[in-house]
TrEMBL record:
Species of the source: Lentinula boryana
CDD domains, A to Z: nit
Domain CN hydrolase: 16-276
Protein name: Carbon-nitrogen hydrolase
Entry keyword set: Hydrolase
One term of GO molecular function: hydrolase activity
PROSITE patterns: CN_HYDROLASE, UPF0012
Coiled-coil residue windows: none
UniProt entry tagged with the keyword Hydrolase: yes
SUPFAM superfamilies: Carbon-nitrogen hydrolase
Pfam families in UniProt: CN_hydrolase
Length: 304
């Protein structure tokens, strides 16, 4: 997100078709993962969506020990032209090529990224326009460090560094805010995106078999209702032979908290039509966006 994007009025919210790829068959072989992801992008494109989304860590096994091994240098600077041909990232090259071939917007899930200068490793989402240009990215801000006794312990911070920016991008049909997985548990990020004019928030994510049944749908519905926006998370498919068992259940929620579509646990492509009328009616009928009391509490989006 650049200063320019802060100052520009959001695009007129128009109807569009969204495709989520709940990707399966993610193995230890990165080349195989990229090949399969590309095949699924092309398959999803046959449904004529305007925007296609991949899940978190689509090119590698999910785990803090894997992130440094699979990390790629991207070298993207927001607001500056990016030369795909000179990119060191094979994942970026594949995603760019697929977006261009399908002539569609593409949110490339996330991949482990190694910073070209600091050597820090991030969990990074990249975004491509229909011409295949890399136009935005988001580094996961909140790292997944949890310990639920007897159920799950995971610590991303052992190998990852947290991002330090909020991010969105403009299409011809909507302003779309970005986050990754654990970012959803911090409502401030979604609030800021909504107040910056985002009509839709999309977070690639990979909840597990403990937190997934409890909070996956609840958090998405909560963020959608609180901010009166469309909210979506795209998960990898569940693989019980892998070291990390994803919950699956990729979904899209409307501004009234209604689940518009939901995948099951396996590999699947789901589509939904995003209707701006629902957005407008929610905000007109329950006008919380005009009733906030910033004389009583601060607007956390101010100054960002």
């Amino acid at each position: 997100m650049t200063l320019m994007s802060k100052l520009v009025k959001p695009p007129t919210f128009k109807p569009f078709k969204l495709a989520l790829i709940q990707l399966g068959n993610i193995s230890a072989n990165k080349n195989d993962n990229l090949k399969h992801a590309r095949e699924m992008i092309l398959k999803a494109a046959s449904g004529k969506p305007d925007l296609i989304v991949l899940p978190e860590c689509f090119n590698s096994p999910y785990g803090h020990v894997h992130f440094p091994v699979y990390a790629e240098k991207i070298g993207f600077t927001p607001g500056e032209p990016y030369d795909i041909d000179r990119s060191e990232s094979e994942s970026v090259k594949m995603l760019s090529s697929a977006a261009k071939e399908c002539s569609t917007w593409l949110i490339g899930g996330s991949i482990p990224e190694r910073d070209s200068n600091s050597d820090d490793v991030y969990n990074t989402c990249t975004v491509y326009n229909p011409q295949g240009e890399l136009i935005a990215y988001h580094r996961k801000v909140h790292l997944f460090d949890i310990d639920i006794p007897g159920k799950i312990k995971f610590k991303e911070s052992e190998t990852l560094t947290g991002g330090a920016t909020t991010n969105f991008f403009d299409t011809t049909f909507a302003r779309i805010g970005l986050g990754i997985c654990y970012d959803i548990r911090f409502p401030e990020l979604a609030m800021i995106s909504a107040r910056q004019g985002c009509q839709v928030l999309i977070y690639p994510g990979a909840f597990n078999m403990t937190t997934g049944p409890l909070h996956w749908a609840l958090l998405q519905r909560g963020r959608a209702v609180d901010n009166q926006i469309f909210f979506s998370m795209c998960s990898p498919a569940r693989d019980t032979t892998a070291g990390y068992h994803a919950w699956g259940h990729s979904m899209v929620v409307d501004p009234m908290g209604k689940v518009l579509c939901e995948a099951e646990a396996g590999e699947q492509i789901i589509y939904t039509d995003i209707d701006p009328n629902v957005f407008d009616e929610a905000r007109a009928g329950i006008p919380v966006t005009k009733q906030r009391r910033f004389d009583v509490y601060p607007d956390i989006s101010v100054g960002l």
